[in-house]
Amino acid sequence: MSGFSVTHPSNRQKWIAGLLVITYAVVTIMPLLWIIATGFKSPEDAISYPPKIVFEPSLEGYVNLFSSRTRITPGMEETLKPPETWYDQVARDSGTIIVGPSRYGQRFLNSVIIGFGSTFLAIVFGTTAAYAFSRFKIPIKDDLLFFILSTRMMPPIAVAIPIFLMFRQLGLNDTQLGMILLYTAVNLSLSVWLLKGFIDEIPFEYEEAALIDGYTRFQAFYKVVLPQAATGIASTAIFCLIFAWNEYAFAVLLTSGSAQTAPPFIPTIIGVGGQDWPAVAAGATLFLIPVMLFTILLRKHLLRGITFGAVRK
Amino acid sequence: MSGNPIDRIAAATPPNMAKRVRGLSDRVIAWLFVGPSIVLLLAVNIFPLIWTINLSFTNFRANRIRDAEYIGLRNYERILTDTDTWQSMQVTAQFLFWTIFFQVLIGFALAYLINKKFKGNDLWTTIIVLPMMLSPAVVGNFWTFLYQPQIGLFNYVVEFFTGIDSSSFSMIGDVSLAPWSIVIVDTWMWTPFVMLICLAGLRSIPDSIYEAAECDRASKWRQFWTLTVPMVLPFLMLAVLFRGIENFKMFDLVVQLTGGGPGSMTTLTSIDLKREAFEKWRTGYASAYAVILFVTVFGLASIYVKALNKVKER
Question: Are B165 and B159 in contact (CB under 8 A)?
């Protein structure tokens, strides 16, 4: 074997490859680290020139994110009681007083409810449909599967026009139920395709044995196939959850108030006088961290998930 | 094994009864299982699609009560002769071309390097993948901060390395730079996608092929072009298909980054469509627009899939 074989790269080759990849990784992760860091900066530090890498951490961004405040006017100061909590203190230090909670918490909660609700439904419908597609002879099966996949090709805005009209008729505009149903439908294509792949991999013999032992078809599905597919179902669920969590186009067009999720809301966070970048960054950080953690959990199934099962590893 | 609970339950079930239930249930279960999904997709996808096609022949406006009139193909005629539409098509085409170009180039290179299996490559791969999984709207919004003249990190880094004054240019505000600002962020976000698929392609090549080539004294260069590239090509083409469809639909990231501006320099078709439908409220016109986009993406994708299958067969 020669010194620079492809199948067994030399140490020097590994070194160079590693160095280049790590450089890229560091550059690519910078914007994300910058979001996290900005969340802990004071507004002055956030917009300093040159940009500050070392700074005094401040919780002002997080306090601003969760509260609405007014500025303390000159005459007001004497009438104020001393700050009661640490967040009152933080607000007071920046010359404002907290008058109430912001809407971020509620928007975040909407994201959680809509995300989990639509994921649950997409998994229930997706698992059963995938099982049927995998195990039964269904007329026009390939056409149905392609139809399910093709629903993902339409630009969301194009679908949004009739959905908007339909929701208006049904009173589903700006409701959590409407968004859950919509995201369920969008996620179904992913969950059916992914889960069909996972179920295809479970040998049919297991069920056959169960059926011969007197299980009904439904029992075989419930007690034999589902436990076998658990890992696949879990990773599919996380993919659906991430999609619903990140979705913006439908959310911004179909929700405005009570059912609005976090992605359309975060960019609208405005402080006293212009965009409050530390608060935006704090909001983004809290919103992005769960997805980052899930991505690390998912890394083995990542490829499969993002290609609708077209590439398995 | 009789200790297994499954076996015990199985043994407890009278065989005749099971058979009877089973005989009738297979087809019923199949439709019971597939039914809800199909119904939901019909309600949320197909019914709206038919409605859109219907609306596209009318002058309906969703913000007025007045009844719509059928105006034949007039909407289609207007769209296809409108210079603004063609402008946004062009912006979309260029956006597609450059994002795919950079993502394929960088994505393949990264996959090639990671495939050298240096120590810790798993960890770094996971880190590289992170941007792809995040909310494009939230991340896009934050990039407007990185792109700020003078105080933005991006401009500062450019100044640091090139000496160009960081307050002298605005990636989002300059007419000539704005198209690149969206290409850069999209490439940052989606290069890992192409990388992952290429990596799967590279890992699917059996070592024995290279060993055989080495025995034949094929040069490294030759091995790369006659073995590696053709073997990875189907994977690469699949990645391009996915990125093509996704970027054709692109909305969230660009809306948050540039909002389509300055002027219409970054007005992609979906942003143009959103304005027609939800700002100008020309619902009928926008429906026709949506149909045209849908036919375009479907047509292009099917031609492409045919080509992809040909490459796979080779």
Answer: yes
Regarding whether B102 and B27 lie in a shared domain, the answer is no
B212 Cβ under 8 Å from any chain A Cβ: no
Same domain, yes or no: B23 and B172: no
**In whole angstroms, what is the distance from residue B190 CA to residue B102 CA?**
10
Mean pLDDT of chain A: 87
Contact list, A188 vs chain B (CB under 8 Å): 37, 40-41
d(CA A185, CA A151): 9
Q: Is the domain of B217 the same as that of B300? A: yes
Checking if the pLDDT of B77 tops 90, the result is yes
Name A188's Cβ contacts closer than 8 Å, sequence gap at least 6: A122, A125, A126, A129, A148, A151, B37, B40, B41
Helices (H), B115-228: 121-133, 136-146, 153-162, 178-203, 207-215, 220-223
Q: Tell me, what CATH number does B241's domain have?
A: 1.10.3720.10
Across chain B, mean pLDDT equals 87
Model pLDDT for residues A235-254, shown as the tens digit of each residue: 999 999 999 999 999 999 99
The reported pTM is 0.89
Å between B285 CA and nearest CA of chain A:
11
Residue B285 lies in a domain: yes
Residue B7 and residue A214 in contact, taking contact as beta carbons nearer than 8 Å: no
**Contact (CB<8Å) B45/A313:** no
Residue B2 pLDDT grade (very low, low, confident, very high; cuts 50, 70, 90) = very low
Q: What single letter denotes the amino acid at residue A309? A: G
Minimal Cβ distance to B118: which of A17, A24, A164:
A17
- Confidence class of residue A1 from pLDDT cuts 50, 70 and 90? very low
Residue of B nearest to A145 (CA): B38
Which domains, ranges and CATH numbers included, belong to chain A? 105-264 (1.10.3720.10)
ipTM beyond cut 0.95: no
On the CB side of B95, CA atoms within 13 Å amount to: 32
Please provide the size of chain A in residues: 313
With a cut of 80, say whether residue B65 has pLDDT above it. Answer: no
